[in-house]
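Entry details:
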Amino acid sequence: MGQSASAAPKIMAIVALVSVVTVEFGGHALLRFVTTDRGRLGAFRERFFRAGHAHAGVLLVLSLVYLLHLPRAGFPAALEWLAGGALLAGVLAQSGGFFLHLAVGEEGGRSPGLLLTRAGALLIAASLLTLAAGLALAL
C-alpha cells in the first residue's frame, strides 16, 4: 500500500489525537496537585505546570485544524511531512519547555526550558507561515 500525499496529515492527526489523551492525564495530575497537594509544587512550579498544560492542549487542537488544511495546500508528500512534523515538534517543544523550566529553572532565571519554549514557538510560526503560503499559492 503506497502512501499518498494525504497520508502524512492522517498519520500526524492520529499522533495529535493520542497526544490529547496525555494532556487529559496531565490535567488530572494538575487538578490533583491543586486540590489535594496544595502548596506542594509551590507557586512558581504550579504556574509553569499550568502554562505547559494549557499550551499543549490549545496547540494540539490547533494542530488538528492545521492538519485538515494541509492537503489543500497541494504540497508534495515530503513537504507535508516536513511542515506537519515541524508543527508537532514545535507543539512538543513549546509546551515541554514549560515543564522543563519548572523542573530545572528558577523564578526569574533562564533555563534550557525557556530556550526550548522559544524554539518551539519558532517552529510553530514557521509551519503556520508555510501552510499559509501554500494555501495562498493554491488559490
User: Anything to note?
Assistant: The chain has a mean pLDDT of 90.
